[in-house]
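Before a computer can learn anything about folding, someone has to put a protein's shape into writing. The outcome of that step, for a single protein, is printed below:
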Amino acid sequence: MRINDHQPLLPYLAAEDRYDHMPFRKCGQSGLKLPAISLGLWHNFGHNADFKNARSILRTGFDLGITHFDLANNYGPPYGSAEETFGRIMQKDFAVYRDELIISSKAGWDMWPGPYGNFGSRKYLIASCDQSLKRMGLEYVDIFYHHRPDPETPLEETMGALDHLVRQGKALYVGISQYSAADTAKAAKILKELGTPCLIHQPRYSMFDRWVENGLLEVLEKEGIGAIAFSPLEQGILSDKYLNGIPKDSRAAKDGRYLTAKQITPEVLNKVQKLNELAKKRGQSLAQMAIAWLLKDPRITTVLVGVSKPEQLKENVAAAQNVVFSKEELDKIQKILN
């Protein structure tokens, strides 16, 4: 079943002031700058999504200065459909803006049946990148990631495949996601020796998930690698969505794959309510403060957000205007989270 696009939007002309308010940050020691807020197409771009809404989200993002659209081979549902949707929107709205965009994709999770459609072999990564380019109608992606560590494939093979994709002209830069500090250091060394430096690491990072603080951020700083934090709102927990119960249209109520009602415990809600009170004192929503809290660290190049409607994107982008925290505020946040 195709996405409903019976009501096409008017031809798109990007806002002239799109670069006036979005802060851009240098990605590690590279020459590439990324917007403080990047847009992820993990949810709400599959075949079950509304095509007109998907177009509105991407248009709104670019108008607000978001130049980075983040995808992966298995985003959907079904797998591959988010890239197909993006490819259609790219052709309709963004073809003339291609050189103003950073488009990324990834491979590493299960994608097709059999032993060649998963993890980190050279066979899988190169085939997957080719498939992604066809689905999106692109000659190259700006960033191609290995989506997760593979304990069975030598790092030399996986990093060699990433280097090969750059040399083929199918990717301009490469990155890794969810690698440990130790494996990140090894991967960075291999890529540097191959002549294709690791541009960026994409870790899960939020106030409630701080594993990156146990050594990874130090490795990224030392190696000159940028960072893009995903799930900054902990699947919506770090917003006002669940302060008064679980809404029927929320991810916890409808999906259950990434967030369940059982995870929203009284203890979690108590922390969220206290954080929300502090956010109000800062003149921010809780979601804005959660994003700003990540951006306070210069080692975080950009924060990756996903939205179901354009209005949410406007709120998220506004977070980048206030990323300074007093020592008192940081101490209060730490006390709440402990």
About this structure: The mean pLDDT is 94. The first strand starts at residue 24 and ends at 26. Strands lie at 24-26, 33-35, 37-40, 68-70, 102-107, 141-146, 171-177, 198-202, 226-229, 302-305. Residues 24-237+289-323 form a domain with the TIM Barrel fold (CATH 3.20.20.100).
